[in-house]
Design a protein that fits this description.
17 helices; alpha/beta; 3 domains; about 500 residues; eight-stranded parallel β-sheet; about 15% strand; about 30% helix; 19 strands; Spore Coat Polysaccharide Biosynthesis Protein SpsA, Chain A
Length: about 500
């Protein structure tokens, strides 16, 4: 009996080719729309009965009892955990002992078609290889297995949220559907996100445009805020994401002649180059840098346009506020924006700054269809808030200890440092540049998200701190003290680091 990794290596090039995971969800019925000839296939549980696959994957022995014949007939190999589950719980017997008794496993093992791996749901491991991660459903284990084996590109059909099966599996709806007593298959997205973030595997449903393209309105002084935002997106994203700070695009555009029409911030007009950066094709998400995400960005990415060019965020209830354009979903094929032309329209009076930025008149068809939970202005409700927008600039968590929600942002910063997504040195460098408050360095060192619990000595580090948006207007008379403060931060950080 071979380990899955060994089998894949013996296959020669198996890790280099893209793989397709097939589940029982509704999108399984769309498989005839795609050319699948370039994929190696892995079928979850009973999916193997619907056609030939390279690998049949099952965690639970019940699948062998009900689909063993189809597995033998339709799959090149069967892969199972070293300790299979029985009725959705980790069993007590290993695969070797079971392969000596159960007829289907006996025959598969004798033919060299039975493979194993260690699964995280039990402490009883055969050892020697990385443990495959899964918590709720088998799709999590399948993606983790492929990613740990070195597969870099994975797609899926039938790995859906919700609670429904494809019509091909109607006969199993009352037998296997959510028989682990969870209310929805949405829970699997958490595990998929963890695997994507920790392994870097490129994963997406085959029927969803990928990757998710997120563009962040920003300037260099907001580098750390952008990096925390990116981490907060990736830690929840159940498909591959590309995050692009727009200041890196080096946008060169003429300034409007009328000062009243000039951008209020260095990144105000950045959003208008997104369709061009995407080749005027596909979707794109725009967000500001002063944000933090708490849910799967796929929810926002897959909202239907329903004839609109642009989706904006709506305000909750009957607030009467106009749509908010700090979070947008763009149809890049429909939005043929040219920033030079937009500036020309400002110059000749066809647009004003207000109609451009607050009414988005550069778009033809706008729908305020993004739920308000995706643009929560200085509000946070556990389990409900999808995106938190820190709009109170003087009290943004990287600039001030006074924001009552700062612990949420600092918690993600600490998490990003511990995950290796943000180097700790970067925080000290940004503090030394005057881009973030000096106390942030010590706060991360102490792993203490709660600002109120910081000792007085740490809080006093911010006494002379001038946020970048204020420092930009300072005269030369204030620059000397700022340099002194930055030098002190560098010395403080060097003193806190262990010597080599």
């Amino acid at each position: 009996m071979r380990h899955f990794f060994d089998w894949l290596e013996e296959e020669g090039g198996g890790a280099e080719r893209p793989w397709l995971i097939l589940g029982k969800g509704p999108s399984f019925s769309e498989r005839d729309r795609y050319d699948l000839s370039g994929y190696r296939t892995l079928a979850l549980n009973h999916v193997v009965r619907e056609g030939r696959v390279d690998v049949a994957h099952a965690i639970d022995l019940d699948v062998i009892e009900t689909a063993g014949e189809a597995i033998e007939r339709q799959a090149s190999v069967l892969v199972m955990p070293w300790i299979p589950h029985v009725k959705n719980r980790a069993g007590t017997r290993d695969l070797a002992s079971l392969a000596a008794e159960l007829p289907a496993l006996v025959r598969l093992d004798a033919a060299g078609r039975l493979l194993w791996y260690d699964l995280s749901t039990t402490r009883s491991h055969r050892g020697g290889r990385p443990v495959v991660q899964a918590r709720y459903f088998s799709a999590e284990a399948a993606l983790s297995l492929l990613a740990l084996a070195g597969v870099r590109h994975v797609r899926s059909l039938g790995v859906d949220g919700g609670a429904a099966y494809s019509a091909a599996f109607d006969d199993l709806s009352g037998v296997t559907r959510l028989n682990n007593r969870h209310a929805t298959y949405d829970l699997q997205f958490e595990g998929l996100a963890r695997t994507i973030m920790t392994t870097g595997v490129d994963y997406a449903p085959l029927n969803v445009p990928s990757p998710v393209k997120v563009f962040v309105g920003s300037e260099p002084a907001q580098l750390l805020a952008v990096r925390v935002l990116e981490h907060s997106i990736r830690k929840h994203a159940s498909m591959t994401v590309e995050v692009t700070p727009l200041y890196e695009a080096r946008i060169d555009a003429p300034a409007p002649k009328d000062p009243a029409n000039r951008p209020r911030t260095p990144f105000s007009f950045q959003r208008f180059v997104i369709p061009r950066l995407c080749g005027f094709a596909g979707r794109a998400i725009y967000v500001d840098s002063d944000m933090q995400v708490f849910r799967d960005i796929r929810e926002l990415w897959t909202l239907p346009f329903d004839g609109a060019d642009l989706l904006a965020a709506r305000e909750p209830g009957e607030s009467g506020r106009r749509p908010q354009f700090s979070v947008m979903l763009l149809d890049c094929a429909a939005l043929r924006w040219d920033l030079a032309e937009i500036v020309a329209a400002l110059d000749d009076g066809r647009l004003t700054y207000e109609t451009l930025m607050y009414e988005m008149k550069a778009a033809r068809r706008i729908r305020a269809a993004i739920p308000p939970e995706w643009n929560s202005l200085e509000r946070f409700q556990e389990g409900a808030t999808r995106l938190l927008h820190y709009t109170d600039m003087p009290r943004q968590p990287w600039l001030s200890l006074a924001n009552p929600l700062a612990h949420l942002w600092v918690r993600d910063l600490i998490d990003a440092v511990e995950a290796g997504a943000i180097p700790k040195d970067l925080i000290a460098e940004e503090a030394a540049r005057g881009h973030v408050r000096p106390s942030l360095v010590a706060q991360v060192e102490r792993r203490m998200p709660e600002c109120d619990l910081l000792p007085g000595g740490v809080r006093e580090l911010d006494a002379g701190f001038v946020p970048p948006h204020e420092a930009a207007g300072l005269g030369r008379s204030r620059r000397g003290p700022i340099r002194i403060l930055r030098a002190a931060i560098r010395q403080l950080y060097r003193g806190s680091r262990p010597r080599a």
